[in-house]
């Protein structure tokens, strides 16, 4: 875990992307502080807070969650005095994931090879003791803060990766905390929303013209990050449309796709999530149609074996 100064009184807390759950966070160290996203478990969030304590005398008075996935908000409870800010739909979706269930998978996973792989990916985490602590300061389209002399804009760009996606823009610093709108050099996963909305959210980041972008996962980047990810999503959507028209199943479509430059991104087998999203759209299903997570886990395992 690394603390990096990326602007005047602005910091990123970065984790090396080792796969599932290795997310990033941010701190605007002005007017009592604003933390952007906490981490997936309490030990890792405490470590993040120790890094922020190197530059701030007290825990931040505000926490902003970019969306409801646990690896961006399950550490909220440790900021006991903080105002927690998020999109209304983020708060509504908070109970969709269960720390208890994740702990059960982490401690189990025997029998099914795909589930065993999933359990192994969770071994770095400890989901015990987590009390879901959703945002209580809610907004719809945008939420503006003035932290001393530093303006901060929370902008709703969903539904894209999830139903309640928010990016955090510091216009004078030319910094964007992108949450999971941007996965950098690692394969994205989509839940609620559409690929079109997601690419539009990436375009919006580009239109803001930041010098520094902190992705939800992966290394800090510039405008090349959202541009490359948009190209990936559009490529997968086009390839999926061809396969759907040919009557192929989702896993058959994923095996058919030549990932080219994207094959080197971390966990390329997440491709099955994006093919499945494209298929849901082609079937004209609702943007919040449930994702069969276990089928996706099985699909990732099958793709790994196919590429070996």
Question: Care to describe what's here?
Answer:
With 308 residues, the protein is an alpha/beta fold. It has a single domain (2-307), classed as Metallo-beta-lactamase, Chain A, CATH 3.60.15.10. Helices cover 34% and strands 20% of the residues. It contains nine helices and twelve strands. It has helices at residues 42-53, 88-92, 99-107, 113-121, 195-208, 224-245, 250-256, 271-282, 293-307; strands spanning 2-7, 10-14, 25-28, 34-36, 62-64, 83-87, 137-139, 142-147, 150-156, 166-170, 175-183, 212-217. Strand 11, helix 5 and strand 12 form a beta-alpha-beta unit. The longest helix is centred in the last third of the chain and has 22 residues, at 224-245. The mean pLDDT is 96.
């Amino acid at each position: 875990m690394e603390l990096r100064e990326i602007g005047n009184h602005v910091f990123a807390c970065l984790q090396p992307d080792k796969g599932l759950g290795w997310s990033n966070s941010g701190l605007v160290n002005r007017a009592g502080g604003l933390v952007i996203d906490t981490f997936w478990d309490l030990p890792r969030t405490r470590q993040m807070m120790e890094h922020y304590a190197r530059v701030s005398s007290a825990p931040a008075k505000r926490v902003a969650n970019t969306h409801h996935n646990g690896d961006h908000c399950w550490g909220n409870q440790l900021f006991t005095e903080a105002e927690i800010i998020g999109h209304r739909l983020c708060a509504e979706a908070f109970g969709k994931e269960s720390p208890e269930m994740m702990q059960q998978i982490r401690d189990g996973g025997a029998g099914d090879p795909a589930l065993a792989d999933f359990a192994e990916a969770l071994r770095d985490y400890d989901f015990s003791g987590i009390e879901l602590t959703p945002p209580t300061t809610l907004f719809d389209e945008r939420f503006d803060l003035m932290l001393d002399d530093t303006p901060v804009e929370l902008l709703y760009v969903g539904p894209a990766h999830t139903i309640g996606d928010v990016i955090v823009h510091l216009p004078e610093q030319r910094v964007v905390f992108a949450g999971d709108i941007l996965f950098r050099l690692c394969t994205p996963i989509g839940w609620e929303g559409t690929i079109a909305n997601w690419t539009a959210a990436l375009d919006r980041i580009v239109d803001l013209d930041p010098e520094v972008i902190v992705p939800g996962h992966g290394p800090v980047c510039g405008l090349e990050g959202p541009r490359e990810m948009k190209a990936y999503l559009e490529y997968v959507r086009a390839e999926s449309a061809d396969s759907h028209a040919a009557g192929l199943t989702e896993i058959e479509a994923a095996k058919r796709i030549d990932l080219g430059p994207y094959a080197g991104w971390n966990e390329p087998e997440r491709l099955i999530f994006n093919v499945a999203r494209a298929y849901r759209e082609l079937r004209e299903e609702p943007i919040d149609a449930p994702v069969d997570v276990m089928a996706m886990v099985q699909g990732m395992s099958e793709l790994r074996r196919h590429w070996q």
